[in-house]
Structures are given as C-alpha cells and as structure tokens.
Design goal:
The chain is mostly helical. It has two domains: about 5-110, no CATH class; about 160-205, no CATH class. Helices cover about 50% and strands about 5% of the residues. The chain has helices spanning about 5-20, 20-35, 40-45, 55-65, 70-80, 90-95, 120-125, 160-190, and strands at about 130-135, 140, 145, 150. The strands form two sheets. The protein has a two-stranded antiparallel sheet. Strands 2-3 form a two-stranded antiparallel sheet. The longest helix has about 30 residues, at about 160-190.
C-alpha cells in the first residue's frame, strides 16, 4: 500500500477513534449492510449464484489494485498456488506489496526468536513444525501477513532456576487478567442496558 494511502487510512482511523463507538457502528450498518450500492454482499445482491459472480469478483479485485489497494488473500493464493517453477514468488510479492521495511529484502527477516516478534505473531509462528508458506494469513496489531518459513531450529530446554522469575510473572499476569475479567462480568451482571449484550454473571462464584 502506498504511503499516501496509508496516510488516508491513518486519518480515517483517528477520526473514528474520536467518535462514539455506537455512532460508528450505526454508520457502518447503514453504509455496508443496508446500502445496496455499497453493500459488502454486493455480488449476492446483483449476481446471486450465477456464473457472472466469479468474473465480477475478479473485476473488483482489479479495481482495488488500480487504486493501489491489494487484497492480502489474493497475494497469499498467488505465492502458494504455483507450478513450482517460480521459486522466488514470495520474495517478488514482498518487494511489490509489503509495506514492511523487510519488503526491500524480499521479506527476509532472518532468524527470529519469541522476544523479537509481537506476541500474536509468536503464537502463530513459534512452537510449530510447518515449513513453507503458511496456509492462512497471520493477523497481528500491524496488519495481515503472508508468512513463509524457510527453516526452524529446535529450542533448548532451560533449567527451571533460570526461568523461575519469568514463570512467576506470567502466572501473576494470568491471575490478574482472570480476576479483572471476573470483576467486569460481575459489574456487567449488575448493569441494566438495552440493546447491548454483555458477558455477565450474577454471582461471584465464577471461574
């Protein structure tokens, strides 16, 4: 995505963050659910299950590309579905589409450890065994990622004494999060709200 397009998105997100969440939701529903011309289900409205639906979806993707927007799903399919002759497919796509600094290097991030990536990426990438382009997009706070794993190096089990502090901190954090969630559920159980469903309980006996 181009820098100018990213700036437009940043401005839109900043504007949405300053507005009431329910107002944002109402505008979204009005625009994309009820507005036939802008519905996200436009193909079903116009073409149903006819044979025209496929070409129309391709035309839409090309329209996005002309505006500088590329669908991550299309990129994933492109690098995964080939005849085996395009060994540089991932690197080529990274150079063309990635807005990560690593794009200039063909998406090469080198060897990564858990401490070097966002936690949501670590959950998806580390502790797994798969090699190659992962079959689905990886979501993180930075966006959507097409990931190719070239090699994995097994970790080394650490003695408990060296990780005791980290284990204790993790358990404390988990206990805090659990207690906070239970407290919020109790508050929600005491609230009276119309039109909004909350994860609520009416007893302190929660787990």
């Amino acid at each position: 995505m181009s820098p100018s397009r990213l700036a437009e998105l940043d401005a839109q997100l900043a504007a949405l963050a300053q507005r009431d969440a329910l107002a944002n939701e109402a505008e979204y529903v009005s625009l994309f659910d009820r507005g036939r011309a802008t519905s996200l289900h436009l193909f079903e409205h116009v073409h149903g299950d006819s044979r025209d639906r496929g070409p129309a979806m391709i035309d839409l993707a090309q329209t996005y590309e002309k505006a500088g927007l590329y669908l991550a799903e299309a990129c994933l399919l492109d690098v995964r579905c080939h005849d085996g002759t395009a060994s540089d497919g991932f690197a080529r796509s990274a150079r063309e589409f990635s807005n990560c600094p690593s794009g200039a290097e063909g998406g090469d991030l080198g060897w990564l450890t858990r401490d070097e990536v966002a936690s949501e990426l670590a959950r998806e990438l580390l502790g797994q065994v798969q090699i190659g382009v992962l079959p689905r997009l990886v979501h993180s706070r930075f966006g959507l990622h097409v990931v190719e794993v070239l090699a994995r190096e097994p970790g080394v089990e650490q003695p408990f004494a060296s990780v005791r502090g980290a284990v204790a901190m993790t358990l404390r954090q988990q206990s805090f999060v659990t207690a906070l969630r239970q407290y919020l559920q109790l508050l929600a159980g005491q609230a009276r709200m119309v039109g909004v469903e909350l994860d609520a309980v009416d007893t302190p006996l929660v787990q």
